[in-house]
Structure formats: structure tokens, C-alpha cells
Amino acid sequence: MKNIGFLSFGHWSSGPGSQTRTAADTLLQSIDLAVAAEELGADGAYFRVHHFARQLGSPFPLLAAVGARTSSIEIGTGVIDMRYENPLYMAEDAGAADLISGGRLQLGISRGSPEQVIEGYKYFGYAPAEGETDADMARRHTEVFLKVIEGGGFAEPNPQPMFPNPPGLLRIEPHSPGLRNRIWWGAGTRATAEWTARQGMNLMSSTLLTEDTGVPFHQLQAEQIQRFRDTWKEAGHDWEPRVSVSRSIFALTNDTDRAYFGLRGDDQDQVGIIDNTRSRFGRSYADEPDKLIEQLREDEAIAAADTLLLTVPNQLGVDYNAHVIESILKEVAPALGWR
Predict the structure, then answer these.
(1) Distance of alpha carbon 58 from the chain centroid
(2) What is the pairing mode between strands 277-281 and 270-274?
(3) Which of 23, 40, 246, 313 lies 20 to 30 Å (CA to CA) from residue 237?
(4) Domain named Luciferase-like: which ranges (predicted)?
(5) Domain span at 76
(6) Which residues contact 259 (CB under 8 A, 6 or more apart)?
(7) DSSP secondary-structure letter at 123?
(8) How many domains are there within the chain?
(9) Residue 210 and residue 186 in contact, taking contact as beta carbons nearer than 8 Å
(10) pLDDT, tens digit, for every residue of 117-169?
(11) Average pLDDT, stretch 52-67?
């Protein structure tokens, strides 16, 4: 059994064939797709976060809206770039969105991906301290965020407040119990996966690893997952973590599927340079359901993960993306023991 959700990049454009032509289209269709996915029996609705791009940038209004329109599906991000975040304000937003959803928030955070603009976090008012890298700053913000969502008091109360205070130091409000154990870190390397385990966060691994050892992507990612679990055990945390992987998977069940994805040429790993680092990109899957099942049996990282996020082509509209999700849930997942 696996948790199966979708991951939307939330693009919008006015290009030919796009059904998400404005930011409003993307936001409203994201809510509708989450509702449809829940009705189909999917387990998660996750959204990418990119700043200075025609994509979803501010996740918490969307997460709260999805939480209010649904009742059971997990709601998450993949991932929030912590270089851009005020950790205290983020803790308030996250607590509110989690309470609205009844404790269904699964918040993916990380250092973030390559940016649309140069050092975009500086426009948001953040810059690394002397001797610190932007990645260091992201981890510093994360450390503060993780601490305050635990719910402990830390702020000295005003002796003459506007409203009565509870005794002792004050905490961030609203506080959502249990949220701390539903934070995920998007790790791009095996070493970062080990760091994630030491911090007590769940592991989120995408279709890109910013390292390359020459082995197939799924095997390198499976090693990353194993290192995470080994380090978690060594750290002695008292709860069981989760691991997610992302994949582009399309079951070709009709002529529309074949027209969109039947001739894709990305069924092999690719190696390239990201941020001056040799990186390995995982393959996509698109085939008839019976052939797709056999191909997916060989993916060691999917087998090792408890959660699979299906990347969806959101610009093709809600109905088609619901069909993409339903095809995997009904035509593929049962044969692989995921359902």
C-alpha cells in the first residue's frame, strides 16, 4: 500500500492549448483538482512554490482554501523555499492552514530550486549573514520554524497587555498540535537526506538529484532513502518518518493520452548541470497500463517510498488531470499492490 497524491507546478500562460491562462485560473483549478482527487480516492494534493514566476508563489491561502473544501486528502507543498521565509510569520500561516484542514497539512520545505531572478530572497528582505551561504540561511530559518511550531513559549509578555495573557512566556498562535511531525525536507543529495533525518523531518525526494554517481537515478534515490532511514534510526527519534518520491507517470488509455504523451522522448535518465553541480534527472513513464506496470516494478526508489507524488500537467485542465490521476489509481496501482 502507498499514499498516492498529485504534485502540481501551478503554471499559467496564455499559450495555445493552455486551460490555465491567469493566476486566478491556476488557483481556482488547483482547489477543484484537489476536490476531484479526493473524490477519486487519492491521498494527497501537493503544490510547488516558485517566486517571481507564473506559478504558485504564496501557498498558504491556497492550502487553507483546499482544506476548507475537502475533508480527508492530505494537503502539502513541494517545496517552500526557506530562503524567502520569515519563520515566525510562516509558523502562524502554517498553524492556521493546518487547523482549517483538521490536521491534514504535510508541509514540504527546503533550500529551494534554482531561482527565476538573481538572489531573489534579498527582495524579500533576507540575506545570508557574514560567512553564511544562502543554503545556510535556509537551514537557519528552518531551525527557528521547527522550534516555534513545537508550541513552547519564548516571548516575554507585556505587563500591561491589550488582552489578558496566559501565565508564562508566550508562543506563536495559532498553534496546531502535531504539525511538527508533518514537516518534510526536500533533499537533493544523499548527505542532505542524512541531515534531514538528524533534524527529525520526513524526506521528500523529487525527480532531480544534485549529484551523480553513474548509477541509474532510481537506484541512487533508493540509496538516498536508505541512508535517511539508517540515520533516522541512529538519531533515536521516537516516531516513524515518511518518505515521498515524485514521478511523471502517464497511463495511455485513450487517443488523447497517446497524443499528449505517447511520443515523449524522456524515458531515460538525463545528466546535466544545475547550479554548477553535475545532477541526474529521473526518467518519465508513459505507456499502456500493462507495460507501465512492468516498468514501475523495476523502480527501486518508488518501492522504497511510502508516498508517491504524481506530477500533473496542470495547464491541461481539471478534467484531464483528474483522468490522469484516476488512470493510475485504477489501471496501475492495484496490480503493483499500491491499492
Answers:
(1) 14
(2) antiparallel
(3) 246
(4) 10-257
(5) 3-336
(6) none
(7) G
(8) 1
(9) no
(10) 999 999 999 999 999 999 999 999 999 999 999 999 999 999 999 999 999 99
(11) 96
Q: Which three cell numbers stand for residue 109?
A: 520545505
Query: Considering Cα of 284, then 338, then 235, then 180, what sign does the dihedral take?
Result: positive
Which CATH number characterizes residue 47's domain?
3.20.20.30
pLDDT band for position 276 (cuts 50, 70, 90): low
**Which of 186, 211, 176, 192 is CA-nearest to residue 281?**
211
* Dihedral sign of CA atoms 208, 5, 139, 194 in order: negative
Cell readout for 98 is 493546518
Q: Report pLDDT digits (tens) over 318-329.
A: 999 999 999 999
Q: Is the pLDDT of residue 188 over 70?
A: yes
Return the C-alpha cell found at 16.
495555445
Residue 320 CA to residue 338 CA, distance in Å, equals 22
Q: All 3 cell numbers of residue 321?
A: 488531470
| CB 79 within 8 Å of CB 49 | yes
Q: How far apart are the first and last CA of the chain?
A: 5
Residue whose entry in the numeric block shows the C-alpha cell 535556509? 138
What cell does 25 get? 485560473
Instruction: Say which residues have a Cβ less than 8 Å from residue 335's Cβ, sequence separation at least 6.
Output: 293
Cell numbers of 59, please?
501557498
Please report, as a single letter, which amino acid is at residue 74: E
If phi over 0 gives left and psi between -120 and 50 gives alpha, with beta otherwise, what is residue 102? Answer: left
